[in-house]
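Holo prediction — S-adenosylmethionine.
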Amino acid sequence: TSVVDWAKSDAYHNSFLIPNDEVLDFVVKNSVDQGLPDIAVSPAQGKFLNLVAQSIGAKRILEVGTLGGYSSIWMGRALSEDGVLVTLELNEHHAKVARENFTKAGLDDKCKVVIGPAYESMTSLQPRIPFDLVFIDADKRTYPKYFAEAKRLVKKGGIIIVDNVVRYGQVNDLSVGDIDTIGIRELLAYIKEDKEIEATTIATVGERAFDGFLYAIRK
Ligand code: SAM
């Protein structure tokens, strides 16, 4: 069998579905130029997050793991005038670059970065109105704790999306025992026992290779 170039597959689909975008090109280049790792969601995944946010008319979005704000901008663009996205980031340099990128995207007033360990930031949030959508995309080892907090912070009927839950099939390969992979397994076990969550894993392939999103609704 021939080896498929999955980045080319994404590029082909994107050529029909995702227009060229000067702002996002700037965001990617600015992030690379300032030394951020190349681990943002792909354009196709970013657009998926945008479409989810549009579908539910999200007005309040919480993100765990900002990096340069690439996924934040995709989701932030789905917000109405009075909408807000709060994104949590440990690394001050990443947060600085993200803020520059939000300015470039014209989203300064809607996208707010909170610097610090995301779990502490989450536990200190007491929102008057709960979030409509939470996107979790930070250190995998802490996913069970992030998910529990996300559940507290999201409204009934709200959505929690968790990135990188497939990891090239390492999650189901029990001979793989690193702490991040274990974090995903613990998250799955947590959800299995939680009667207020309904979820599924959508495994994906593309320029980010073999991975997947967990998509959950808080009942
Ligand atoms: N969501 C971003 C996107 O798609 O554009 C990518 C996020 S990147 C995969 C993960 C980010 O989480 C990194 O910027 C990293 O510094 C941050 N991070 C790691 N551990 C963290 C923690 N304990 N608290 C907050 N952020 C953390």
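READOUT: The domain at 6-218 is CATH 3.40.50.150 (Rossmann fold).
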